[in-house]
Structure formats: structure tokens, C-alpha cells
């Protein structure tokens, strides 16, 4: 038998006979398509029950929120549309994470998104909860045309200085990405990457205003956090899974109590001071 309330039925057909409000609510609970929500609002408008009218108001607000979020995310690609209008067809966003911590690598990600990309919640990774970052990173990795990661170890950071190490992580990410797709332009957070021949557009606060850079920031952050969580098991007592290597009170106290691990950056002031060394210039 065919269910008379099959998902293929229109909202008007499903509301015929005025089913219980709890049933109606369950049908629309996960609906996020604004056009479909508009159909539900229109269909329930003739239902005189106060609860039905309350649902209509709720769905209208939800639709407005969905539309506003779509507009916000679309706005994140305004700069990229300008670049694409110049003839560029494979535009990558680049961002890094892990410049400031006392421990762990610096990581960069490079991401090429599809031409049509609508991902609600896309934002600078620093503005997202860990759960949101994990969810969005998985969606980005699944939907993107290509992505790559570049990593520079604490030992290299100490040799190069943090600025040069960060640029090297970005170069590695770009180099690996170019082996997968024919990248022809880079959108980079805040700076140009020396030693890369591709055209580049640096954007101040790029991870907050450009969709591709925001996607790269999320992928890089989730990857680096996973590394630090693994280090937390390898080097217990430092709290790496909580502070990700940053110089929190907990981390500094553990450094004084336990001393540095192999993943600590010995050229960074708190660690260098503990070891009686001078800090790097970078």
C-alpha cells in the first residue's frame, strides 16, 4: 500500500483533513529548503487552530533564517567571482593554523571548491565550535574539487623561524594541490606566498570574508587539532587535547613541572627561557 502521507505529496495534500499538530511538526522538523518551507506556510494558512498558526510563524522565521544564511555564504564568494570574471577557472583558497602555539607543527590547507557551492555555516574556523568544524570539514573534503595539506614540524620552525615556516607550509600545500588539479589562482589569507608563480590575491581577514579561504581554515584547523589530540596520548600531562599547544596557564604549568617534549618549539620564548636559550627573531 502507498502511504497517503508519502514524502512526495505536496504540503497541501498532506495537510488535507487537518492531521494532529504533532504529526505536522514531525513532517517539517528537518525541512531546510526555503521554497518547500514557503509551501508549508501557504498550506497551513487556512488552518484556524492556534497551534497551526504558531507553526506557520515558526516556519516563516526558519525560512527567513535559511535565506539570510544562504545570502551570507553567497557573499563569501564575491571576491572569487571577480577573479573568475577575469578568466580564472581553478581558484584555490589557502590558510594556515598553528602560528602561535608553543608546541606542534604549523599547518596550511589549500582547497578548490566547486563552482556552485552552498554550505550553511561556512565561516572562519575560529568562529566555529569544534563540533561544527568537524562537520563542515567532512563536508568540504567530500564536496571540494581537491584539497591538500602542508605541514612544517617544530624542528623546522626552530630552524627557519615561524614566519618562514608558515610560508613553507603554504608552499607545500599549494605544490601538492597543483599535482591534483590545474590551479590558476590563489586566494590567500593576509599575505602573498613567495616562491609560488601562480597569481595571488591576498585578503586581510580572508578566513572571515572569503569562502575558499574559510574552507581552508576549517580543513587545516581540524587536521591540526587531530594531531594535537594524538600528541595528548603520546605525551600525557600537558593537556594538548584541550589547548592544542597554545600557551595557556595549564600548559605553562606543565612545562615547568615536566619540561619540554620533542614537539615543543624550543625557539619560542617560554620554552627557550626554560632551557636557557635565546628566542628566534621570527
Polypeptide structure, described:
The protein is of the alpha/beta class. Helices cover 51% and strands 11% of the residues. The protein folds into three domains: 11-75, no CATH class; 88-220, Nucleotidyltransferase, domain 5 (2-Layer Sandwich); 232-275, no CATH class. It has helices at 11-15, 21-28, 34-44, 50-75, 78-84, 130-143, 154-160, 162-178, 206-209, 211-234, 240-243, 249-258, 269-275; strands at 91-97, 106-112, 146-152, 185-189, 200-203. A five-stranded mixed beta sheet has the order 3-2-1-4-5. The longest helix has 26 residues, at 50-75.
Key features?
282 residues; alpha/beta; Nucleotidyltransferase, domain 5; 3 domains; 5-stranded mixed beta sheet; 13 helices; 11% strand; flat
Amino acid at each position: 500500500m502507498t502511504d497517503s502521507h508519502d514524502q512526495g505529496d505536496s504540503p497541501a495534500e498532506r495537510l488535507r483533513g487537518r492531521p494532529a499538530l504533532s504529526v505536522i511538526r514531525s513532517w517539517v522538523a528537518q525541512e531546510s529548503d526555503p521554497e518547500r518551507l514557503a509551501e508549508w506556510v501557504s498550506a497551513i494558512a487556512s488552518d484556524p487552530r492556534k497551534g497551526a498558526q504558531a507553526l506557520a510563524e515558526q516556519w516563516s522565521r526558519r525560512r527567513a533564517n535559511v535565506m539570510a544564511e544562504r545570502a551570507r555564504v553567497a557573499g563569501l564568494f564575491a571576491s572569487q567571482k571577480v577573479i573568475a570574471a577575469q578568466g580564472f577557472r581553478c581558484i584555490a583558497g589557502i590558510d594556515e593554523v598553528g602560528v602561535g602555539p608553543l608546541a606542534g607543527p604549523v599547518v596550511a590547507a589549500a582547497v578548490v571548491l566547486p563552482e556552485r557551492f552552498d554550505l550553511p555555516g561556512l565561516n572562519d574556523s575560529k568562529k566555529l565550535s569544534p563540533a561544527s568544524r568537524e562537520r563542515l570539514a567532512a563536508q568540504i573534503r567530500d564536496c571540494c574539487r581537491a584539497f591538500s595539506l602542508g605541514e612544517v614540524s617544530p624542528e623546522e620552525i626552530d630552524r627557519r623561524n615561524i614566519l618562514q615556516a608558515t610560508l613553507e607550509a603554504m608552499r607545500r600545500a599549494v605544490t601538492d594541490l597543483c599535482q591534483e588539479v590545474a590551479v590558476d589562482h590563489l586566494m590567500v589569507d593576509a599575505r602573498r606566498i613567495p616562491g609560488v608563480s601562480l597569481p595571488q590575491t591576498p585578503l586581510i581577514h580572508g578566513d572571515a570574508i572569503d569562502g575558499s579561504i574559510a574552507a581552508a581554515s576549517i580543513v587545516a584547523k581540524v587536521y591540526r587539532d587531530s594531531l594535537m589530540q594524538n600528541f595528548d596520548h603520546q605525551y600525557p600531562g600537558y593537556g594538548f587535547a584541550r589547548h592544542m599547544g597554545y600557551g595557556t596557564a595549564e600548559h605553562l604549568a606543565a612545562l615547568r613541572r615536566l619540561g619540554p617534549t620533542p614537539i615543543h618549539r624550543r625557539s619560542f620564548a617560554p620554552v627557550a627561557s626554560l632551557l636557557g636559550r635565546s628566542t628566534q627573531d621570527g
